[in-house]
Write a structure and sequence with these properties.
heterodimer, A: about 375 residues, alpha+beta, Rossmann fold, OB fold (Dihydrolipoamide Acetyltransferase, E2P), 10 helices, 20 strands, about 20% helix, B: about 230 residues, mainly alpha, MetI-like fold, 11 helices, about 0% strand, globular
């Protein structure tokens, strides 16, 4: 088994389902969360079902950590694959209590005592399920049900977690209740996951890698921030273009309630509740919140004015330019997007390679639940 | 008050015995058939379903006639009977059981098939992604979720076997303690003008039928409530 096969998810599926043609192949690291992102009906769910073995396209290949689940001669049935699957609807077993739902897939006998197993108590605590254990799933709210479904999938001790839009059937409020749970999951467990979504804000908060899908094909694969800032992809050109950057907390000014975050090539000041130093936080900076200037203003209410270099400028619509920036005076740091008018681009004489200052009007910090 | 003839309870006992054995056999035989009919994608499965449903529309005499041919001395039933030295399966209790199983099959298979179909693919897919083998998924998910269908099927199968007349008359005849079941006994009492005895058995059947239909309705109501 070669080195690059051991920590990789490789999937390739080709076939026709009714009038829909799927021809999707990608390879992503088997660490962190990979988002399958694309419009409804682009084949995301079909890809996930093929990885799970719930659907069998004969012309397919699927291997995780070098362990082949499907190729020309092999097809493991779903129950022979070490996966956890969270469906769009929680699909709890109505005839079993919450506790027995959670334990349905848990290994029994000798396998139950694995040393690196995800512990029952940890899952209960992580997902806040203690109060629900002895209830029937029939009377749970939508959010509670989906949390039980996630816990049930985790307790089957999967090597790969597959989530098919687990939040899409929930209302805004319930979504905001569950997202922090998923973020904690991401931080606490080393379990790789594939997460389907058509909601870019979920992807921005959760994903490490991104597979962009369109009409049954894969348009791009890569780390989230790379794809977000790639001007040739629709993400950067869209109205709500943004980049997600993973930063480390450095210090906290309790007097003003301002957090200092360190990221590649810059420091960011963000209003926040108190946070200790050395913690990882993800920030999201929208392209429309970044403006450009040649000289740093001597006095400004804007907290973050960062030296950067222009990498490229790409037209977005007839009168706007999406500018790709690299932070740091040398232009070697994290990538950022700025959306400016074509008029400003011309009047400021902006061009590739030019040193510039990026004024960041807003930074949103993904809040972790306590 | 005139005392009842002692043998009036014999057909009742025989009928309950026949219906109970038939129901148990049908649950064992009917469940795999119902599962296959609910899950298979074979194009010819509806042909099998039609075959199973035929007793619903066939006159009992037609079914009885062919069973008589099959179970009689010159049919396969006769050959089987010769294994233990008998001449025929017709006009025996065993023959009645075979006939009842065929006759009541649609009443057991149909509700169980519907219950399996109503579960849909999802719970079984969930079970599979939780490492459950198809066998474990069947016993721990499909069967418990289809329980109302099993109850309905069992009640209908039992009740229908209790009420069968035409087929029994064709292949069972009227042998006390062997093939003389309730419906035949009532007919017999009427033939011999024993109206009082006929009335007792007939009234009992009335109460029984009412109880069955009420039970069924209550089961369905309960299911509707749980499903909500």
């Amino acid at each position: 088994m070669s080195e690059d096969e051991t920590k990789t998810i490789r999937a390739a599926f080709r076939g026709t389902l009714g009038r829909f043609t799927l021809d999707a192949a990608f390879e992503v690291p088997a660490t962190g969360i990979t988002a399958l992102f694309g419009p409804s009906g682009c084949g995301k769910t079909t890809v996930l079902r093929c990885i799970a073995g719930l659907q069998h396209l004969p012309d397919g290949f699927c291997a995780i950590d070098g362990d082949v689940w499907q190729d020309k001669t092999v097809f493991k049935l779903p129950h022979q694959r070490p996966i956890g699957y969270v469906f769009q609807e929680a699909s709890l077993f109505p005839h079993l209590s919450v506790r027995r739902n959670l334990m349905y897939g848990a290994p029994r006998g000798q396998d139950a005592a694995m040393s690196d197993a995800i512990a029952f108590d940890e899952v209960i605590e992580l997902l806040g399920l203690a109060r629900l254990l002895d209830r029937s799933p029939v009377n749970l709210s939508g959010g509670e049900r989906q949390r039980v479904a996630i816990g049930r999938a985790l307790l089957s001790q999967p090597k790969l977690l597959l989530m098919d839009e687990p939040l899409s059937a929930l209302d805004r409020l319930t979504k905001d209740e569950i997202l922090p749970f998923l973020e904690r999951l991401h931080d606490r467990l080393s379990l790789p996951a594939i997460y389907i979504s058509h909601d870019i804000s979920e992807v921005e908060r959760l994903a490490d890698h991104l597979v962009l899908m369109q009409a049954g094909t894969v348009k791009a694969v890569g780390p989230l921030s790379t794809l977000q800032s790639d001007p040739s992809l629709p993400l950067a050109a869209s109205r709500d273009a943004a980049v997600s950057i993973d930063a480390t907390t450095e210090s906290y000014d309790a007097n003003y309630g301002i957090l200092t975050l360190k990221l590649d090539g810059a420091r960011l000041l963000v209003p926040s509740a108190p946070v200790g130093a050395g913690e990882r936080r993800r920030v999201r900076i929208a392209a429309s919140d970044v403006s450009l200037t040649h000289e740093p203003p001597t006095a400004s209410t804007i907290l973050n004015i960062l030296p950067a270099r222009i990498v490229s400028g790409s037209p977005a619509g007839p009168n706007e330019i999406v500018v790709l920036l690299a932070l740091g005076a040398e232009g070697t740091g994290a990538r950022l997007l700025a959306r400016v008018t074509r008029r400003s681009w011309d009047q400021l004489g902006l061009t590739e390679g030019l040193p510039i200052y990026a004024q960041v009007k807003g930074v949103s910090l993904a809040q972790k639940s306590p | 008050m005139e005392s009842l003839p002692a043998d009036i309870w014999q057909p009742v006992r025989l009928t309950i015995e026949l219906a109970a054995i038939t129901t148990v056999i049908l649950l064992f035989v009917g469940t795999p058939i119902a599962w296959w009919l609910a899950r298979s994608k074979a194009w010819w499965k509806e042909a099998v379903a039609a075959l199973v449903a035929m007793p619903l529309v066939l006159p009992p005499t037609v079914l009885g006639f062919y069973l008589l041919v099959l179970l009689g001395p010159n049919g396969p039933g006769g050959q089987i009977a010769s294994l233990w030295g008998a001449r025929t399966l017709a006009f025996t209790f065993e023959g009645l059981v075979i006939a009842s199983v065929l006759y009541s099959m649609p009443f057991v298979v149909q509700p169980i098939r519907n219950a399996f179909a109503a579960i849909g693919d999802r719970p079984l897919e969930v079970a599979a992604t939780l490492r459950a083998s198809p066998r474990r998924a069947f016993w721990t998910v499909a069967v418990p979720l289809a329980r109302p269908g099993f109850l309905t099927g069992a009640v209908l199968g039992f009740a229908h076997t209790v009420g069968e007349f035409g087929v029994v008359l064709m292949i069972g005849g009227n042998i006390p303690g062997e093939t003389k079941v309730l419906s035949v006994a009532i007919y017999d009492y009427v033939e011999t003008s024993q109206w009082r005895e006929a009335n007792i058995l007939a009234a009992g059947m009335l109460v029984f039928a009412f109880a069955v239909i009420l039970t069924m309705t209550l089961i369905e109501k309960r299911v509707a409530r749980v499903g909500a």
